[in-house]
Amino acid sequence: MKNRYITEMGMGTDVHGSDHTVAAERAVFDAIHHSSLHFFPHLDKTANDMQIDLMIGVPDPDAVDKDRVAAILPYGAVTVTTEKGGLSIPTEGGDAIIVANAGVIVHILEDD
Q1: Helix (H) / strand (E) containing 80
Q2: Pure H helices in the chain
Q3: For a designed S-S bond to 31, which of 23, 24, 87, 104 qualifies (C-beta 3.0 to 4.6 A apart)?
Q4: What backbone phi and psi angles, to 5 degrees, belong to 69?
Q5: What is the model's pTM?
Q6: 25, 31 Cβ separation under 8 angstroms
Q7: Fold of 2-109
């Protein structure tokens, strides 16, 4: 059975360069640094038993390097999905400030 244990949200920006992947990486970093996970010993599991779904919202979902964003997480099996969201804030310099939102959902497979 697959049980959800953690849901975290984060926000990240790339202020110069209009890089959707940088904004997404920062959003994931923001989300995961709100938690300290202590339940693994109680479940007889390790951090490597996590199945992690990353949901990223950015103005241009195809501009996100999913492998690079997944690499932010040091443990578990990571799946990244992107969708239209976030913000693209115009600047006088011609590039945009990209704002990404991240949802991090952690599941653990448990023995039936």
Answers
A1: strand 77-84
A2: 20-32, 40-43, 66-70
A3: 104
A4: -70, -40
A5: 0.92
A6: no
A7: 60s Ribosomal Protein L30; Chain: A; (3.30.1330)
Report which of 71, 80, 67, 91 is spatially closest to residue 14, judged by C-alpha positions.
Answer: 91
Supply the mean pLDDT for the chain. Answer: 94
Give me the residues paired with residue 58 across strands.
Answer: 84
Q: Which residues pair with 79 in a beta bridge?
A: 53
Closest CA to 107 of 11, 10, 34, 1: 1
Q: Which residues pair with 55 in a beta bridge?
A: 81, 103
Supply 45's token pair.
């599991």
- Contact in structure between 83 and 56 (CB atoms under 8 Å): yes
Q: Domain coordinates of the chain in residue numbers?
A: 2-109
For 60-75, write each residue's pLDDT tens digit.
999 999 999 999 999 9
Structure tokens at 24: 């997404």
Closest to 2 in 3D by CA, of 110, 75, 76: 110
Q: DSSP label at 66?
A: H
